[in-house]
Model the fold of this input.
Amino acid sequence: MVRGTETAGRLRYFTIAEEIRRRIASGSYTYETALPSQASLAEEFDTTVMTVRQALKTLEMDGLIETRHGVGSFVTGLNEDHREFTLSSFRQALGSHAAEVVTEVVFRRRRTDCTAASRALEAAGTTVSAIGRRRSIRSTVLVFQISYVVGAYSDVLFQYRPGHSLYAALNAYLDTVITQADERITAIGAPDAVALELSVAPGAPCLFSERVSKDAAGRPVLFDQAYMRSDAVELSLHRNGKSAYPTYLIHDKENS
Done:
């Protein structure tokens, strides 16, 4: 085993942190249970306690564990409310109405042309696959969302069932954990094709989100383009320390 260099140390604690993430996501380490002691983890991974501490610090900054001095480290993230990476899940992020949101698959394509998706997935020259979905509540369309993966993962899109988590399916298929997302949200006028899906007039104001979801190693796994009716959906941002969690709130006109 390589020791003694800063680069090797970073790679080692990163590898340990990623493996613990996998265990949390798979349920091997469940919510509120204690992780093995730092000494036990150091022995398991054949490394030093200092390297284990670096790995645990990384997980704590991600909000997955909590270190209680004199007691140990406990799982606090990826519980039943977070296991499917709610930061990137529109279905789960649609506020208190999530149980009432209906998902409908509009199309599935094994081959599609999208320069933005190819660039985001670092898949230049590679086939890109896509699935289009509508999110509705009480027959009112809220979101039209197109999700892209590299063609090698197209089976995940064709096996997807509405109401389930595409992120959880990708986690299982790739044996990885989606833990990061880069998201950009802008205000635009709905393009003609999108306006038709949202049941609004062309050019109607909407929020446009582009997100790249990544695994623990920072590799892009999924690219989403989502169009949200601005008269029905609002973005709320919750901050917790250095972390920020967006929630998409519904303007329910029938109950307002």
